[in-house]
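Dock tryptophan; give full complex structure.
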Amino acid sequence: MGSTARKVSLTGIKPTGEPHLGNYVGAILPALDLADSYESMYFIADYHALTTVRDPALLRHYTRSVAATWLAAGLDPDRTTFYRQSDIPEIFELSWVLSCMSAKGLMNRAHAYKAARDRNREAGREDLDAGVNMGLFNYPVLMAVDILIVEADVVPVGRDQLQHVEYAADIAGSFNSIYGDRYKLKIPKPVVPEEGTAHTLPGTDGRKMSKSYGNTIPLFAPEAALKKVIRRITTDSVPVEAPKEPESSSVFTLLERFGDPAVVAETRARLLAGGMGWGEVKAQLTEALNERFAPMRDRYEALMASGSELDDLLAHGADKARKQTRPVLERVRDAIGIS
Ligand code: ADP
Ligand code: TRP
């Protein structure tokens, strides 16, 4: 492909939990923005989730839930190729091929694998690989394949995934150094939010909102459930009359992100002056989130219903994706001498 050809943006979303507000702000919105300037290919990395999700009903649920979330958030399936990783057999064939070109030492240094070993070390276990499956160890190779098989130019990811995109470039380089005169894989570039400008949303306990902390606000919780989660947001116990530091609770930080600017300004002033309780701010936040997300929630629920168009949309996306992945795999097979 020449330099004036299509520029592809690709990202994968691992279906390991219910999507939350942090995912929306930190991953979904930025990726949807890129769809204006790139040919975008976004997929549900369901086989990546298998390294941790071992309940079949749950894996199916998260996969549909993540797909429905992206569609409800505005992903246009006509403009974006939107598919499930497991529907693309070429990925798994290329995964074997590229694991034969990937240095084991590179995988030894991968963050997730090193973190698993560190946890074993801290727990005093003799076997530092205890509980590590080959899926976790090979994770970066499969991710490299996701990227290389569609000849992606850019890969929008969170900072924690930067190393994986660098590995993809490295693995492509190893392939190219052997077979480059017959076929060259395209070297991808990561796109990460700039340090400091990345809007990291706090969760209900004030730490970064994350599934692993159990402090998330789900994107599409029904109103009653939303109220309950918001009520749990940690605040200080300063009496209603006393002045309060707005930023001392994530309830205000979240309101700032999702509320009407006039309401936010007034609330800030009233908190600083004293006489406003956190309960009232929580009610404002519930209202703001409800207003912003209720229409999307309706669309999400319609897509989640059995018999909705969700499965057809994903099947159609897989057909479109395979138009890219089949020829790449064929060229690789030809280059390595398998036909
Ligand atoms: P979690 O921390 O809940 O497990 P993931 O690691 O699956 O979330 O993150 C998926 C995407 O959402 C990543 O691109 C990540 O940068 C983004 N993201 C997750 N939590 C937040 C947050 N609190 N604020 C902003 N972006 C976030
Ligand atoms: N590893 C990514 C995560 O944990 C998900 C992912 C899988 C991905 N394949 C990808 C992201 C390819 C970008 C490109 O969030």
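Observed: The two ends are 23 Å apart (CA to CA).
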